[in-house]
Amino acid sequence: SYRITIQCKQFLSVQFTVNRQEKKNKDLHQMLVKLAFPGDEGRVFAFEYRKKFKDNGWEIYDFEKEYTRMGALKENSKWRHSTINKDFSLIDSYPEDLV
Questions:
Q1: What residues contact residue 71 under an 8 Å CB cut-off, 6+ apart?
Q2: Calpha distance 28→19 (Å, rounded)
């Protein structure tokens, strides 16, 4: 028998002790190797598993609606809406709308 150790990104360590003679264990080993070293990043779980959503996530969020809901865009608020980064002209990694 041999041991397979999987070290997860959250520092969780999982160990399997496997009997070399059993076919199902050889299948498990082949599957783990295939998933651990996919050769094509499109085969990684994050790309392979695609949950279908009924809404377009980019259209759900409304900047003004959200910040108004939180009270940040009220007239007496100490916060203000800035368009200084319109068209990402100031800092390309920041959003267009800033508060």
A1: 77
A2: 11
Q: Angle at CA 64, nearest 5°, toward 60 and 70?
A: 95
Total-model pTM: 0.41
- Torsion angle defined by CA atoms of residues 11, 12, 18 and 23, in that order, rounded to the nearest 10 degrees: -100
CB 94 within 8 A of CB 88: yes
Please name the helix (run of DSSP H) or strand (run of DSSP E) that holds residue 4, with its range, or none. Answer: strand 2-7
Smallest CA-to-CA distance from 13 within 3, 28, 2, 27 is with 3
pLDDT digits (tens, 9 = 90+) for 36-68: 776 766 666 677 667 777 788 778 888 888 999
Tokens of 96: 């267009």
Q: Around 94, how many Cα atoms within 13 Å sit in the side-chain half-sphere?
A: 13
Q: Which of 35, 43, 41 is nearest to 8 (CA)?
A: 35
